[in-house]
Structures are given as structure tokens and as C-alpha cells.
Design brief:
The protein is mainly alpha-helical. It has two domains: 183 residues, MFS general substrate transporter like domains (Growth Hormone, Chain: A); 196 residues, Up-down Bundle (Growth Hormone, Chain: A), CATH 1.20.1250. Helices cover 81% and strands 0% of the residues. The chain contains 19 helices and no strands. The two termini are 27 Å apart. This is PPP family 3-phenylpropionic acid transporter. InterPro entries: MFS_assoc_dom, MFS_dom, MFS_trans_sf.
Length: 399
């Protein structure tokens, strides 16, 4: 019964986090255009936020791996409180100003930085013999993102984009409530002192890279796979318009992909037990490339919808598989750093896609950009096959 309650609370954390992500990143252009910013400024804001998150995630993770003074739950709560404070200020700022740019970048960066630590929360419980269904929680997050996108689209159209910062505040408060109540039975914090009480030579980032060489190639594979994923997501309206679709078609395609993520993520643990984490990683890489190739060859919305269905075996498999893969590959005192690097690789791909995607679209057009992205994706799949280790065998040997 206690496990079920924890599963529900963890799913709520993911649900409200991904709704917050949707309201911030998904509607960033809508919000900032309404304030009078140019497309160039908006692209810069998103790129800087992602770049800062790329460096911020491993930096915070390194601190968390070394300290026993601050738990993950406390860290996440603190970041959410800062986001709430910044969002309250954004609620009452009007017009385009440098203050708004800075506050928006900081709020977006903090929100993006949270992701690997929310992912890591579950493993503190695993160490105490309590299984949390990460796949189900992450699937709920995807559905929550899709539903929030539909809700915000209608509300913003009916009222005003000025509502968005109020959603930042409300969704952050909801996430904070469930993070605050997410603790071990007996009201103990989830901080794990067993490992930290034992002296470890804490690794610098350079030492970490030397220690886990094949993991670094896996990060390269992740960047390559997520580049085209991010190009398609960031410029999806251009892709849809290219085949005579419209914004409604785009909304349907996004909703389809997000909803289909839930069953895969919810059942991930069962699939992993039968197939193994290594094979799940390889399956996700193959279907990323299948999705990207199908998108390149799409000549109508039906083919786009078929490509979006591949999401359930691509992104929906990769997210939980990568989290479990890292948890089995790296030593426990390197866990936060490992999780942050995977998230950082995905974020870095988004940065490249944001900066290069628009330029390439203007210079080459949609079709050639999708072809380039598909080729890069296939290279990513090849790198994944070279780099992924049989962590299931590692786990068996250790047990």
C-alpha cells in the first residue's frame, strides 16, 4: 500500500514537472512574442537556457555526489521555490526589457536543470528496498505535457499569453507539494548516507570521463539521435506546412506521440526484465532512426502520424532505459553525475538544433534538413550499438 502511495506521488511530481516544462519551453515563443521580443531574441533565450542547463546539471550533480548536507528532495524543493519567486516577478512585468530576458533565462535554466534530479529521486528508494515505477511516472509526465499543451493552447487563444507566468507559479507549487511529501516511510529524508559515510575519492569530470570511456561514446550517440528529434520538435510546424498540413494537424501529431508514450513507459519494467536494458537501449536507437527516416520521406499527414507512432518505441523506451542503464553502469557515488550527463547530452542536442535548425531551414529548406537529420540519426544508432554495454550481466555479477 505504501509503495502504491509513493508511485502516485512520484507520478504527480513528473506530471506537474512536465506540465511546467510545457508551459515554459513549449509556449516560450508565444509568451515572448506577446511581450514584443523578436524571433532572434527568443531563439537566443532558449539556446542560452539550454546551454546553461548543460553546464549546470553536471555541476550541481558533482556537488550532490560529494555532499551529505543536502538531499535530492531538498535540492528540488529549493529550485522550485526560486522558480516560483522568479515567476511571480514575471507575472507583473510588461513590455520587452533586459530584466525580463534575464529572469526568463534563469527560470527556464532552473526548470531544465531539475530533470535529472527528479529522475534520480526514485533510486534513493530502490536502495532502501522500495520499488518505484519510474516508467509509469515518466509516461504520466508525457500525457500531462500533451494535455497541458491542449489546455494552454485554448486558454491563451481565448484570453492572453500573459496568463503563462501564473501557470509557472501554480504548476511549480503543485510540484513542490508532491516533492515535499515524497519521503521514505517513517518520514525520513531520502538522502543516502551509507555511501557518503564511506570515504570515496570523488571524481572530477575529467576523471569520470576516463573511468567510463564507452559511456562517453554513448553520450555522443545520444546527442546524434536527439539532434534530429529536437529539429523536428522545434520546427514541427515548418515540417507539417511542407506537406500542406496546418497547426491543428501538428497538435494532433504531438498529442498522438505523447499519449502513446504512456503504455510503453508504464510497462517498461516488465519489458526490461524480459529483454534486458542493453537491448532496450538498442531498440530505442533503431526506432529513433526509423521515425526520422519516415519523417523525411513523408508526403502527407498520414505518414507523419505513422512516424509519430514510432515514438512509443523510440523516445518512450530511451528515457526510462537510459535512467536504468546509468543506475546499473556507474557506481552509486557517481550516480547523479551520470544521470546529469545523459540529460545534458539531450539538452546539448536541443541547443545544436535550436541554433543550426533555423539557419539550415532558411538556407536549404525542409526536405534537405530532414535528410541531414536522418543521416545524423543513423550515425547515432551506429554509435549506440558500439557503445552500449551489457549492464544486466554487470548487475547479475554484483548480486
Amino acid at each position: 500500500m505504501e509503495n502504491k502511495s509513493l508511485d502516485i506521488r512520484y507520478a504527480c511530481i513528473h506530471g506537474f514537472y512536465w506540465m511546467l516544462c510545457c508551459s515554459m519551453i513549449g509556449y516560450a515563443s508565444v509568451f515572448l512574442l506577446d511581450k514584443g521580443f523578436t524571433n532572434t531574441t527568443i531563439g537566443t533565450v532558449l539556446a542560452i537556457s539550454n546551454i546553461l542547463a548543460v553546464f549546470g546539471q553536471p555541476a550541481v550533480a558533482s556537488y550532490m555526489d560529494k555532499t551529505s548536507k543536502l538531499s535530492l528532495r531538498m535540492l528540488i524543493s529549493l529550485i522550485l521555490v526560486v522558480i516560483i519567486a522568479l515567476s511571480l516577478v514575471l507575472c507583473f512585468l510588461t513590455g520587452a526589457s533586459m530584466v525580463m530576458v534575464v529572469l526568463t533565462i534563469v527560470a527556464f535554466t532552473l526548470m531544465l536543470t531539475l530533470q535529472p534530479f527528479i529522475n534520480s529521486l526514485t533510486f534513493a528508494f530502490e536502495k532502501n528496498g522500495i520499488h518505484i515505477n519510474f516508467g509509469l511516472a515518466r509516461g504520466i509526465g508525457s500525457v500531462a505535457y500533451a494535455v497541458m499543451s491542449l489546455i494552454l493552447g485554448n486558454l491563451v487563444a481565448a484570453f492572453s499569453p500573459e496568463l503563462l507566468p501564473f501557470f509557472y507559479v501554480g504548476l511549480s507549487l503543485c510540484a513542490l507539494f508532491f516533492v515535499y511529501t515524497f519521503f521514505l516511510p517513517g518520514h525520513k529524508d531520502e538522502i543516502v548516507h551509507q555511501e557518503k559515510e564511506t570515504e570515496h575519492d570523488q571524481l572530477s569530470m575529467g576523471q569520470f570521463i576516463k573511468k567510463y570511456k564507452t559511456f562517453m561514446l554513448l553520450l555522443v550517440a545520444t546527442v546524434l539521435l536527439f539532434f534530429d528529434h529536437s529539429v523536428i520538435n522545434n520546427f514541427f510546424i515548418q515540417v507539417v506546412n511542407h506537406i500542406n498540413g496546418n497547426s491543428a494537424d501538428m497538435g494532433n501529431a504531438i498529442f498522438l506521440a505523447a499519449v502513446l508514450e504512456l503504455p510503453t513507459m508504464a510497462l517498461f519494467t516488465k519489458f526490461q526484465q524480459k529483454i534486458g536494458c542493453k537491448n532496450m537501449m538498442l531498440i530505442s536507437a533503431v526506432f529513433f532512426s526509423v521515425k526520422h527516416v519516415l519523417t523525411y520521406f513523408a508526403v502527407n499527414m498520414f505518414m507523419i502520424y505513422v512516424a509519430q507512432v514510432m515514438q512509443m518505441l523510440a523516445y518512450a523506451v530511451f528515457i526510462p532505459a537510459s535512467v536504468y542503464y546509468v543506475s546499473q553502469l556507474v557506481e552509486e557515488h557517481d550516480m547523479n553525475k551520470g544521470q546529469a550527463l545523459v540529460t545534458g547530452a539531450m539538452t546539448l542536442a536541443s541547443v545544436f538544433a535550436s541554433l543550426a535548425g533555423g539557419v539550415l531551414l532558411d538556407a536549404l529548406g525542409v526536405s534537405k534538413v530532414l535528410m541531414i537529420g536522418a543521416i545524423i540519426s543513423v550515425l547515432g544508432t551506429i554509435c549506440m550499438f558500439i557503445s552500449v554495454e551489457d549492464v544486466d550481466q554487470h548487475a547479475k555479477k554484483e548480486s
